[in-house]
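Recall the central idea of this unit: under ordinary conditions, the amino acid sequence of a chain determines the structure it adopts. In this exercise we apply that idea directly, starting from the sequence alone.
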Amino acid sequence: MLRSGVQFHWLNQGYTSFDAFLQTLDRKKRKNIVAERRKVADAGITMRRMRGTDATQADWHLFNRCYRHTYAEHRSTPYLNLDFFLRIGRSMPQNILLVVAERDGAPVASSLVIHNEDTLFGRYWGALEHVPCLHFETAYYQPLEFCIEQKIGVFEGGAQGEHKMARG
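Accordingly, the structure predicted from this sequence is:
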């Protein structure tokens, strides 16, 4: 049996900003990303990024709640738990980026990525409600901006579905 899958690998080509990255894409991809980001903003969602060193217990509880809610929505069982998130938050906070999506100050979704100086790995994510394109904003575009700002060379986003994400 053959198994087909898609892996997301992004290389930072020395971009100075997310807009500079967008300018390297063909018109259609650039237009799609801008439209997706606009949908999130038009829904009243703001994004907040925090390093693991700044994450509080409340932030970890929020992430866990979002993560578990998304698994429940997909009728699946999450394989990570709050204890795991709290442990990594204590043992490797310098390697963690949490992204929180909020509407009117209330959390709506969150994502988690792990990084070192050279590479940002994976993305765990969850949402408390469905907002079109929020997954891409929270789990891809925000981490890409972080990579550009921190001069991280590679984003290994992991296994993907059918969406054709830009490969910079």
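The first strand starts at residue 6 and ends at 11.
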